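Input record (Table S2, row 284):
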Amino acid sequence: MTKPATQLVTTKDALRAARARLEGPVAVVMTMGALHEGHLSLVHRAREVARHVILTDFVNPLQFGPGEDLETYPRDLDADLALVDGLVDLVFAPSVEEMYPVLPPAVSVSAGRLGTALEGAARPGHFDGVVTVVTKLLQLTAPEVAVFGRKDAQQLAIVQALVRDLDLPVRIEAAPIVREPSGLARSSRNVRLDAEGREHALALSRAVRAAEAAAPSAPGIRAALTDAVAAGSPGVRWDYALALDPVTFEEIADEHDGEVLVVMAAHVHGVRLLDAAVVEATPS
Ligand code: AMP
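Output record (adenosine monophosphate complex):
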């Protein structure tokens, strides 16, 4: 792909007009901004699988609950534009009013059964907000491919179900987790951690590594995660660390054979962090 001249669009009309001028396959990368290496890896994947790339940069109020960090979520559009300049064709960064003339919208999309477990249990309505904005952004960007990161493993599973169950004409591409050299999964929220918080946050990637080391024993993977939570760790308030069947989202049984989705969430110094991995289990 030749280096695109990156164009910023902030209205739906401007986006539709610019999208119509893109010839050939288009990939979209949806973000809430405060871009980092994790987002850039999605952009690079998008460039590999399509001729043109659209990056959306929008902090979606619909996926934040009361008392969550909507107001303090990091925002820096100029820095975001500098990072993706020459890497994407379009950056769509609308205002809240542009995306939602009426907020909350009269009609929205439901994430269904998958949307009430785990992150959805901790954050009621979160995934309904996610699938509503994802559906709108898919309509507006009309891509062949949409790239999502495996760090938000439940979000990825729900978006795959959204596309499958509502017959949306797009292919979902999953991209691997990008980590800092310490092992910490890159996240826009990491900027809110001080040096000690970043140290304490390593409890999550340690638990991921323990689960990976215990594979392919299903009881071993489960025990590694249970032990990590039970042992506790300074500065960390665990919410969950589970080994799931990637299809049913149920916890795996001892005789589980095949892929296991390891997912975890914890508050570290008040910042909610996620980590995840895909491992293989075989019955002993
Ligand atoms: P966000 O801006 O946090 O909503 O994330 C936008 C997209 O980037 C989602 O598909 C995330 O899963 C993905 N993403 C965020 N952090 C990472 C990471 N460290 N590695 C891979 N993908 C990521």
